[in-house]
């Protein structure tokens, strides 16, 4: 479990990124961490990974303090940043050097991913495109089999077929003792993956709920014309009509339109 209590972080005396954040991430879930640029998503992730240290409050990952950077902590957490550097090695050399840092690394699993992405392990990293480098990093991250996997904008640089492969890889590699946190502006890429949705804005958490709980409360609909219905909680024009949210009065769990939900929460039209 990741336990965050009364977390604050200041870049300077005048810039307070967080305002008393309280969050828990439980094993067995894939979390979608959503928010506009500059709301603090990356800063929150860096506090969890121990790359930044809280100004106030506490952050614990399976009982360990990230800022101490203990071996027990580092070997069970993998972070895929949006911007990254890979050394000028062949993929095979890369694996040989770095796999021992992760006791649960599965080389056969990694080989499967490279075949799915159609990338030879004999290739040097400098010979790969941006998208291919991202695929190798994602494959390594999944093969490390850490208890905590954090991915910042993982689908950036991936083409449409690769995004489908990425989603399938995440599903196949997911285990009940694992916490996966994914940030993305491309929320459609997360639709089939995530179990829980966290929406940040201005250093605060506006929404933190399981997707099934949201589906139980809300119903998402698409219609050709705008509806004049007082039961509609939120409505907006989309390319093929009007998308709306209203209370779910049935026992059926329907589809959750994450993008529409995000817009509604930021517009302060939903209180869940």
UniProtKB/TrEMBL annotation:
Keywords: ATP-binding, Nucleotide-binding, Transport. SMART domains: AAA. Residues 2-227 form the ABC transporter domain. PROSITE patterns: ABC_TRANSPORTER_2 (PS50893). InterPro entries: AAA+_ATPase, ABC_transporter-like_ATP-bd, ABC_Transporter_VariousFunc, P-loop_NTPase. GO terms for molecular function: ATP binding; ATP hydrolysis activity. It holds the Pfam family ABC_tran. The keyword ATP-binding applies. This is ABC-2 type transport system ATP-binding protein. It comes from Flagellimonas zhangzhouensis.
């Amino acid at each position: 479990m990741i336990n965050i209590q009364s977390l604050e972080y200041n870049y300077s005396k005048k810039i307070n990124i967080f305002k008393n954040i309280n969050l828990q991430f439980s094993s067995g879930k894939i979390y979608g961490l959503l928010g506009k640029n500059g709301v603090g998503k990356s800063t929150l992730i860096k506090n969890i990974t121990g790359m930044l240290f809280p100004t106030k409050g506490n952050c614990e990952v399976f009982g360990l303090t990230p800022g101490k950077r203990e071996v027990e902590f580092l070997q069970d957490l993998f972070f895929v940043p949006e911007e990254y550097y890979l050394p000028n090695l062949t993929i095979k050399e890369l694996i040989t050097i770095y796999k021992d840092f992760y006791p649960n690394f599965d080389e056969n699993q990694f080989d499967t991913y490279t075949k799915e992405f159609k990338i030879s392990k004999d290739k040097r990293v400098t010979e790969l495109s941006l998208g291919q480098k991202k695929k190798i990093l994602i494959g390594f991250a999944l093969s490390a089999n850490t208890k905590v996997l954090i991915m910042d904008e993982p689908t950036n640089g991936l083409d449409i077929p690769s995004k489908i492969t990425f989603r399938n890889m995440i599903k196949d590699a997911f285990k009940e003792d694992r916490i996966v946190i994914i940030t993305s502006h491309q929320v459609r890429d997360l639709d089939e993956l995530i179990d829980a949705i966290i929406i940040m804005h201005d250093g605060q958490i506006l929404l933190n709920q399981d997707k099934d709980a949201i589906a139980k409360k809300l119903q998402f609909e698409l219609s050709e014309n705008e509806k004049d219905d007082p039961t509609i909680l939120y409505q907006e024009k989309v390319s093929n009509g009007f998308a709306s949210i209203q209370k779910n009065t049935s026992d059926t769990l329907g589809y959750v339109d994450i993008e529409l939900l995000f817009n509604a929460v930021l517009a302060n039209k939903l209180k869940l």
